[in-house]
Amino acid sequence: MTETKKRAAAWGEALRKAYPEARCSLHFETPFQLLVATILSAQCTDEKVNQVTPALFKRCTTPASLAAMAQEDLERMIHATGFFRNKAKALIGAAGMIARDFEGEVPRGMDELLRLPGVARKTANVVLGNAYGRAEGVVVDTHVGRLARRMGLTKENDPAKVEADLMRLFPKEEWVVLAHRLIAHGRAVCRAKSPSCGTCSLAHLCPKVGVPERAGSRS
DNA sequence: ATCCCGAGGG
DNA sequence: CCCTCTGGAT
User: Fold this and answer.
1) Chain C: bases < 7 Å from a protein Cβ
2) Are the beta carbons of A100 and A59 closer than 8 angstroms?
3) Nucleic strand B within 7 A of Cβ A83
4) Residue A73 is among the residues annotated as catalytic for this protein
5) Global confidence as pTM
6) pLDDT of the residue at A192
7) Catalytic choice (A141, A158, A172, A193)
8) Which of A190, A191, A128, A125 shows the shortest CA–CA distance to A159?
9) How far are the Cα atoms of A9, A69, A193 from residue A88, in angstroms, in the given order?
10) Are A37 and A121 in the same domain?
11) ∠ CA(A150), CA(A156), CA(A158), 5° rounding?
12) How far apart are CA A135 and CA A147, in angstroms?
């Protein structure tokens, strides 16, 4: 086992103890609902998403019914989540494509999911891992990327490269829960701006504790 | 690299 | 006023 892989295993174990219950915090009951909620979650808190989705899911029970909505009406319903024009257009486009090309069912594979407007690897990984239980990759959002770098598990900045490193370092069965734990830790402790390194229960593993954010990062 | 975009915190 | 929040498309 490589040195980095050993450190990854140590992080995985520590995260499991610190966040045993970590899971998806978006509210959903079907794969389609999770897809919608995940598209809405871009640059927005999951809590805010959970405030707008109940009314939306009540009005649109199928992809076809969402695709048939007037974009203006949809924009009003999701306004609070930000980026509402882009998101409304993506949702209507994705719902229409699912209705027409996939017989009304959210596709179960990465390649198909990536054809949907507003869906890239992050969103596809969320749906595959959390709705279908068939992860093809690791969810890399702003939290996962930041923590993987701080933890010394990658030096990449490109989310796709971070994902490749994490896939190499962790067994497939841990990919879904790993992302949830990193996100939980990233929100509560290892925040972007002022991480609570002083009270962090994982600090003993961390190469960045006490190291100023930018010092020596460029050579 | 830049744009889309609201809401809440410091 | 600044920044950040489970991104994606151009």
Assistant:
1) 3-9
2) no
3) yes
4) no
5) 0.92
6) 86
7) A141
8) A125
9) 40, 10, 30
10) yes
11) 120
12) 20
Pair A129, A176: CB distance under 8 Å: yes
Amino acid occupying residue A147: L
Q: What is the DSSP string of A118-133?
A: T--HHHHHHHHHHTSS
Task: Name the residue type at position A213.
Answer: E
Give the list of residues 6+ apart from residue A45 with CB closer than 8 angstroms, or none. none
How far is Cα A25 from Cα A172, in angstroms, rounded to an integer? 21
Q: What is the CA radius of gyration of chain A?
A: 19
The domain spanning residue A17 has which CATH number?
1.10.1670.10
Kindly report, residue by residue over A47-106, the tens digit of the pLDDT.
889 999 999 999 999 999 999 999 999 999 999 999 999 999 999 999 999 999 999 999
Other CB atoms within a 10 A radius of the CB of residue A162 amount to 22
Q: In this structure, what token pair is assigned to residue A22?
A: 């970590």
Same domain, A74 and A121: yes
